[in-house]
Structures are given as structure tokens and as C-alpha cells.
Amino acid sequence: MNIIPIRTESDYDAVLARIDTLMDAELGTPEGDELDVLVTLVEAYEAKHYPLHACDPIEAIKFRMEQMGLEPKDLTPIIGSRSKVSEVLNHKRELSINMIRNLHKQLTIPYESLMNSYSI
């Protein structure tokens, strides 16, 4: 096992290729240990070079609606009246604490996604 830091895109691609060959490695074997170390290196490299940006809460809601096959009218028990739903989905009304709680509970959208700031 010759493991070096990932410094370039070429290094990154090579490590991903090696990980691909090790995916069926058994835990506790030298190959399994190598896989574990390489995955950790890739996670660190990706966190530094490909950071995930906070998503817009309204986009998170729309994404979840699409996943669940929901229409705006289906959100009235969660958010309130049809006009409130429309205002929220069109970035004209901020989410209230109760809306956030209901969206989290009913649609299982993570609180972290719902509590990000966004422009009205």
C-alpha cells in the first residue's frame, strides 16, 4: 500500500480508479484498510475543492415535492392557505418556524435545508 496525498486532479482521478477496484474488499483486510484510507483522502480533497453550498430552502421544498409527486395545493395542510403556499414557493413570503417544523415533519426535509437564508 503506497498512499500519498491527493494534490492534483490527476491524483484524484487515480485514487478514484483505485477505489473502484477495491470496492468489494473485505473489512479488516489490507485491501479493506486501503479502501478506508483512500475514501477518507477523497472526502478531504472533495471538501476542500468541491464544497457544497447551502441550498435555497424553497428549492429544497420544490425538489421534495417533485420527488413525492406533490402539487402546491398539497402543501396547504403544511404551510397554510393556497395564497401562503404560492407566496412561499414564489419567494414572496418567508418560512415561519411552524412552517419549517411542519415541512420537516411531513416531508422529511432536513432542518438544515429549511433554515438557510434566502432572498424574498
Describe the structure.
With 120 residues, the protein is an all-alpha fold. The chain has helices spanning 9-22, 30-49, 57-68, 76-79, 82-89, 97-107, 111-114.
For this entry, give a set of tags.
mainly alpha, 120 residues, 434 Repressor (Amino-terminal Domain), 7 helices
CATH topology of the largest domain: 434 Repressor (Amino-terminal Domain)
Low-pLDDT runs: none
Q: Average pLDDT across residues?
A: 94
List the domain count as a whole number: 2
Class inferred from helices and paired strands: mainly alpha
How are the SSEs ordered, and which strands pair?
Layout: H1 9-22, H2 30-49, H3 57-68, H4 76-79, H5 82-89, H6 97-107, H7 111-114
Quick gist of this model?
The chain is an all-alpha fold and 120 residues long.
